[in-house]
Write a structure and sequence with these properties.
It comes from Caenorhabditis nigoni. This protein has 179 residues and is mostly helical. The protein is built from eleven helices and three strands, in the order αββααβαααααααα. Strands 2-1-3 form a three-stranded mixed beta sheet. β1 and β2 form a beta hairpin. The radius of gyration is 20 Å and the shape is elongated.
């Protein structure tokens, strides 16, 4: 019986090749990765693969407390076969990029969110939460008219914003109306 070629994007992005030298296991599923690539992009993986931890010499390293699809999508953003984010997973990927110390992935996600059609208040909330300056500024710049500010104060997104972001929004209101 011949083996079927992989068609799943995750299988394709993380198949075993002559360039992979480690296996990460998430929820019992395997991702074949390159230690040097991960170490270059992440201090977390640099420490994991090159410090005196038992994982350094293990043939398979288990990653706990994360969903397989999210973790694979996260790591794929530094490979030649990226699995692009979407509205549903972008925020989870930002959380994972912080957890696994992947600043280059944060940049990719910020660009994705900035160019998305996500509503401006949601962009502001995410920009505020993850300290994504470009996303925050882009969302603030979308507040142009009186009607853009109406009712914003009563939303859960607004209530969760930091004081500094609320101040920037207030400044935007004052600047727009020459008060």
């Amino acid at each position: 019986m011949t083996k079927r070629p992989a068609t799943d994007p995750i299988e394709l992005a993380f198949a075993e090749t002559d360039k992979t030298d480690a296996i990460l296991v998430i929820d019992g599923k395997k991702l074949h990765v390159n230690k040097a690539l991960l170490s270059y992009h992440s201090d977390y993986f640099k420490t994991l693969f090159h410090s005196d931890f038992k994982e350094k010499s293990m043939p398979e390293i288990e990653i706990k407390d994360t969903k397989f699809e999210d973790f694979a999508a996260l790591l794929s953003l530094i490979t030649v076969s990226p699995i692009w984010p979407n509205y549903e997973n972008a925020e989870r990927l930002l959380e994972l990029s912080d957890r696994f110390l992947l600043p280059s992935v944060r940049c990719v996600l910020e660009i994705y969110l900035s160019s998305s059609s996500m509503n401006k208040l949601e962009k502001m909330r995410i920009g505020d939460k993850f300290k994504l300056e470009k996303l925050l500024k882009d969302s603030l710049s979308q507040y142009r008219q009186n009607s853009d500010f109406r009712g914003i104060r009563n939303t859960s997104e607004f209530k969760g914003l930091s004081d500094s972001t609320k101040l920037m929004l207030f400044d935007r209101l004052m600047t727009n109306h020459n008060i």
